[in-house]
Amino acid sequence: MPLEIDANLNRELVPLSWLIGSWEGVGVVGYPGTPEKQFGQRVDFTVPGDVPYLAYSAHAWTLDEDGTPADTLSIETGIWQLVRDRQDFDAGPGLMVPTGESPYTTAEAVEGLRNDNGDFDLDVSIVHPNGIMELYAGRVNGPRIDLSTDVVARTRSAKEYTASTRMYGLVNGELMWAWDMAALGTELTSHASARLKKVS
């Protein structure tokens, strides 16, 4: 089934448009030294106005043996966007008002942002409630996204966490993702994965 793209969608979001919406499903989480457990998750990718980025939020919770939602594992928030130099026509830093018109208003202009491999480079920021913020560098190629941490920032009270990779893919209309991380003295290893169905 072909993807329908809103004609009013900011052109820079077209390569990410297959993510937009709400997704729910279940997955498996584990890590050396901790038990493997099923979890439930809801992920939302929204467009907060005519902006060249997606707002991201994810809520994950443990599941009892009968599948009943139990305790919250994490709530993540973030921003996903294509890589390009920010110019006067972009808002910020802070609340600075943009001046001028964006040149990225056509599919042809956005196509010019592809890298030498034919992918679009991505910047993704994700904030966790336990004192960790990740800045990912990545790429999107069709319905697949690969991310790896460029920067991990931790508060003084956060647990040790040094690196992460994530992969997202659209398979038969479902959002599949996998997450590897390096934390608590363990090198990069499998941590969690899930299969989510679109709910809106």
Explain this structure to me?
This protein has 200 residues and is an all-beta fold. It has a single domain, classed as Calycin beta-barrel core domain (Lipocalin, Beta Barrel). It contains one helix and ten strands. Strands 1-2-3-4-5-6-7-8-9-10 form a ten-stranded antiparallel barrel.
Name a few traits of the molecule.
single chain, globular, 200 residues, Lipocalin, mainly beta, 10-stranded antiparallel barrel, 2% helix, 10 strands, 1 helix
Write a compact overview of the structure shown.
The protein is 2% helix and 56% strand. It has 200 residues and is mainly β.
Chain-wise SSE layout:
Elements: E1 21-31, E2 34-46, E3 54-63, E4 69-82, H1 107-111, E5 120-127, E6 132-141, E7 144-154, E8 161-171, E9 174-183, E10 186-198
Antiparallel strand pairs: 1-2, 1-10, 2-3, 3-4, 4-5, 5-6, 6-7, 7-8, 8-9, 9-10
Q: In which range does the helix fraction lie? A: under 10%
Beta-strand content bin: over 45%
At CATH level 2, the architecture is: Beta Barrel
What is the subunit organization of this protein? single chain
Instruction: Give the number of helices.
Output: 1
User: Termini, distance in Å?
Assistant: 16 Å
C-alpha Rg (nearest Å) = 18 Å
